[in-house]
Amino acid sequence: MSSFVNAPETHDDFPMVAGKTPLTQRVGIGTLQSLQDRFAALGRMTVAIATTAGRLITRPTWGSRFSELIGDSPRGRAAFTEAIGDCLLTAEEAEPPSCHEGMSLYTSSIVHDGVQLAIIVVGTRTHDPPEAAAAATTAARYQIDAAELAREAAQLDPDRGGAPEDIHRFADMLAHIIAALYGQALRIDRQLADLSAIHKLSDLLAGTLDVQHILDLTVRQVVRAMPVKACAIRLLNEQTGELVLKAVHNLSPQYLQKGPVMLQDNAIDATAFAGEAVYIEDAPNDPRSRYPEMARREGIVSGLCVPMTYRGETVGVIRVYTQDRYLFNQSEESLLRSIGSQAASAIINSRLYEAQAGAERVHRQVQAAAQIQRRMLPAGPPRHTHLDFAFVYEPTLQVGGDLLDFIHLPDEQIGFCIADVVGKGLAAALMMASIRAYLRAYALAGHAPDRAVAAVNRQLHRDTPVGEFATLVYAVCTADARTLVYCNAGHPPPVILRGDALLELAEGGMVIGVREQEGYHLGVVSLLPGDLLVMYTDGVTEAMNFQHDVYGRERLLASIRQHRALTAHQVSRQILWDVRRFAGLAEQSDDITILVVKCT
To answer: Where are the beta strands (DSSP E) in 13-126?
Structure first.
């Protein structure tokens, strides 16, 4: 391990770069160091990551013991830092800077949205090993042990690690990967900020049952959470069909006094009330606008209108306005929908409370308002008339790369999936979150399992670096639990135990994220009462004991047969215990996820 000590210790050492969050606040120094060390080992080269000002972020990974001896000396550290500074000042067409007796430096920029966040510095040697006299002179210059330096100098190989141009391409690829991790972290932060705004509103709404107070809180919170000038809420009067203006923020009294808006006569609000988001690019000139002159006088240009819906009941619409032309993105639309849904739930709960007074009822209504919060993993198995669900999820790290989800679909169908992302830790968890979001979106849009998996594959291929992929099984069961349709994308085949026979669910295609246009096939299975379906990730079959024996598929099938008479919950726990008994105290390297479905 190098003793280089110039690397910073806190995020405060990195100032904002052109309005960007510092790299290390989104990709940890430990992650950067690990990526750097692995990259350096591929080509036996010297690698370091530095700020755009030339300050080292990571400890240098030296390509040879010869370079390490020089680099760890006080003069060597100073020379390396100075050479990095020269790299930042040297034009691309000029001779690359060098240091440490012939090590040439190359830099690759880590760039996100056109802004340089940091640089990767790569040092390579193409010269012949120095003679003994030259090595002795170098040792004296850097005040290091001459005999040891001479021994290490003799080991230098100018051909090690490959051609410099190949190493440079690898460095550019590493820079791209780090930039992609940074971008993914930013997207998650934006999603967390949206959730924070929703949770804050949830806390505010939980303290009141006054409908008007709920609406006033909502419009103020929307303007704080989104890049908009104003917000307005209209609630439907079911007796008259009028959308009554109930709350506004940052609109004039004159605007509030404009004429009535009838739902059936207003194309924008009627479309939103039907469940769609409506974008208004230029309100004063939009033929759908009922009062264009009022919009022009108010300084309103663009707008977005979404329904206020909770559990299938729409109570009104919520609109936001900007003073300049603005195109709302999908994230902003989702945030506004969530806030509208939360406000709708609060309104509906308030109305229920007015009809059914009682402290216990109030408590249940406030809890219902909090149900908008989403978790990456289900809190428990879903309830179904004909199916008994149970699952086990045990990540090896604090965050895992396995995915388990249940999706409630129209016509009382239920979808469920299990997936395994390559790798572990933060990167796997980020990829798992993306797969979950994509799959839910396509499933809820009505896509069959094969089409949904194909769409997820395309998105994953476009949004993730080369080499990242996942296995996935997505299945949908009809309401009567007699038909199961599924698609298996390279995942260990789930099994259905029927009597003494075993059916494998292998129909589908290859893993997702590798080939953008990969085709996937739909599998169809008829279910019978007593059928036992078991889905699992390879953390089960690849569990290893101290003798390095793996648990394997045959042991798993034997466990399923042995416990088939138990409930789904008992079967899942017994399989887990069988795996644990086999592995003992041996440390496991992969997450364990088991999903059991029993047909009743």
So the answer is: 46-50, 98-99, 103-112, 115-124
Strands 483-489 and 508-509: parallel
pLDDT of residue 348: 74
Single-letter amino acid, residue 399: V
Question: Could you tell me the fold of the domain covering 11-186?
Answer: Beta-Lactamase (3.30.450)
Distance between CA atoms of 556 and 490, rounded to whole angstroms? 19
Q: What is the pLDDT of residue 25?
A: 84
Whether the predicted pLDDT of 38 surpasses 60: yes
Superfamily of domain 206-369 in CATH is: GAF domain (3.30.450.40)
Q: Which of 280, 285, 318 is nearest to 302 (CA)?
A: 280
pTM summary value = 0.41
Q: Are 182 and 27 in contact (CB under 8 A)?
A: yes
Closest CA to 415 of 434, 375, 455, 442: 442
CB 483 within 8 A of CB 531: no
pLDDT digits (tens, 9 = 90+) for 7-17: 444 444 444 44
Q: Which residue has the higher pLDDT, 186 or 515?
A: 515
> Could you count the other beta carbons within 10 Å of the beta carbon of residue 589?
11
Angle at Cα 214 formed by Cα 213 and Cα 218, nearest 5°?
Answer: 115
CA angle 197, 200, 206 (to 5 degrees): 140
The per-residue pLDDT for range 148-170, each reduced to its tens digit, is: 988 888 888 776 666 778 888 88
Question: Which residues neighbour 301 within 8 Å (Cβ) at sequence distance 6 or greater?
Answer: 282, 283, 284, 321, 322, 323, 324, 325, 326
Q: Which two tokens stand for residue 276?
A: 């769609």
Q: Helices 74-89 and 132-142: crossing angle, nearest 10°?
A: 90
Question: Please, what is the angle between helix 552-562 and helix 568-583, to 10°?
Answer: 140
Stated as kind and residue range, the H or E segment containing 107 is strand 103-112
Q: Are 89 and 11 in contact (CB under 8 A)?
A: no
**Superfamily classification of domain 387-599:** PPM-type phosphatase domain (3.60.40.10)
Please give the C-alpha separations between residue 102 and each of 70, 128, 138, 155, 418, in angstroms, as whole numbers.
12, 10, 11, 15, 53
Can you tell me which residue has the tokens 């707008």? 303
What is the residue whose two structure tokens read 């094969």? 450
Using left for φ > 0, alpha for ψ between -120 and 50, and beta otherwise, residue 15 falls in beta
67-82 average pLDDT score: 92
From 59-68, 341-350, 424-433, 564-573, the region with the lowest mean pLDDT: 424-433
Task: Enumerate the domain spans of the chain.
Answer: 11-186, 206-369, 387-599
Look at 437 and 475; give whichever has higher pLDDT: 475
